[in-house]
Amino acid sequence: HPELCMQFVIANLDKHEIIVDELKLDDKHIEQLIVSNQVSLDLKAALLEKHGGLHMTHAIALYLTKTTITIDTSIFKAAWEHLKPHEKSLLMLRYMDILDADDFEMCFSDIGGIYAHLADRSRRHEETLELTPQHSRLATRLESVGYISSQKIKQIASDNKLRQPSTKQEIAMWIRQNKE
Q1: pLDDT at 159 (0 to 100)
Q2: CA 92 – CA 69 distance, rounded (Å)
Q3: Which of 62, 123, 127, 153 has its CA 20 to 30 A from that of 19?
């Protein structure tokens, strides 16, 4: 019974230190192990490193949007191919620390929506995003990889439904021109 075998593997992975390289697993089994609450993050990372690129599934990619497992850009890109645009934005924001400027350009172009204007590196220009903790982290990361030259918080006046004046905050970022 395949389900009993998987239960045995899950129950004994940590106890007997089954070597990931010796396991012969198909997509379904790898997916079950990675999304299981009973498998440690270290073992999940090892499984992803060994099998993630070739055996990525939508369920694994979606799981990566909700947890922080150590992955490299090859696993990120494999997961990327299995996600819808709104799921891709979650993956990008979760793993932004492993991405470089070219990766961000690809992400912004592929996701579109609120990020579409950030993909244009043909010229130097200012773009904004709503100020959220994630967008603040993103702007800091974009500055550190040289995608933007500067960032600042702007107060924007807006009318709400009750016609009362209010302000919202945005992050203004200067996108660097890619001269390649």
Answers
A1: 64
A2: 14
A3: 62
Which tokens sit at 125? 């220009």
Extract the tokens encoding 29: 């089994």
Q: Which among 94, 34, 136 is positioned nearest to 80, based on CA atoms? A: 94
Q: How far apart are CA 39 and CA 11, in angstroms?
A: 8
Give the model's pLDDT for residue 161: 65
Per residue in 47-86, is it b (16+ CB within 10 Å) or e — as a string?
bbbebbeebbbeebbbbbbeeebebeeebbebbbebbeee
Angstrom distances, CA of residue 61 to CA of 70, 80, 90: 13, 7, 11
C-alpha to C-alpha distance for 41 and 53, rounded to whole angstroms: 17
Asked if 117 and 127 touch (Cβ cutoff 8 Å), the reply is: yes
> To the nearest 10°, the Cα dihedral for 126, 130, 134, 139?
10
**Bridge-partner residues for 100, per DSSP?**
none
Residue 43 in 3-state DSSP?
Answer: helix
How confident is the model at residue 5, as a pLDDT? 53
| Whether the Cβ atoms of residue 55 and residue 20 lie closer than 8 Å to each other | no
Global model pTM greater than 0.85: no
pLDDT of 4? 46
